[in-house]
């Protein structure tokens, strides 16, 4: 749960950003360099898939958000879950694990 909490905290830093804009900003802030088009495409596809899934499964969305019980449920909870999962993926890619 700690890693998901950290990813959700990171995702909440960008409340007005969604999709490609969020991915580009999150990557830039995390690594200090622009993201490649290939990585953007892969993460955007993942983001869209997760947002669609959680938008159609509200009980699972709320259960996911309860991992961080001190947070309020946002107006678009599926979007926060998708952003959280993208942040978690960013925490686990090579650039995050193998810094020069």
Give an overview in words.
- 70% of the residues lie in helices and 0% in strands.
- With 100 residues, the protein is mostly helical.
- Helix 2 (19-31) packs across helix 3 and helix 3 packs antiparallel against helix 5.
- The longest helix has 19 residues, at 37-55.
Assembly type of the chains comes to single chain
Determine the N-to-C terminus distance: 28 Å
Mean pLDDT rating? 89
Shape: globular
Number of strands: 0
Structural class determined from secondary elements = mainly alpha
Number of helices: 6
H/E topology pattern: HHHHHH
Unreliable stretches (pLDDT < 50, length at least 5) are none
Q: What's the Cα radius of gyration?
A: 13 Å
Largest sheet: none
Kindly state the percentage of residues in helix: over 70%
Instruction: Give the strand content.
Output: under 5%
């Amino acid at each position: 749960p700690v890693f998901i909490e950290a990813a959700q905290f990171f995702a909440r830093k960008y409340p007005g950003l969604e999709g490609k804009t969020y991915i580009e900003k999150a990557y830039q802030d995390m690594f200090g360099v622009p993201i490649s088009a290939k990585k953007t495409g892969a993460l955007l596809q993942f983001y869209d898939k997760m947002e669609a899934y959680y938008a159609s499964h509200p009980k699972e969305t709320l259960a996911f958000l309860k991992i961080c019980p001190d947070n309020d449920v946002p107006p678009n909870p599926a979007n926060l879950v998708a952003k959280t999962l993208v942040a978690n993926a960013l925490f686990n890619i090579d650039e995050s694990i193998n810094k020069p």
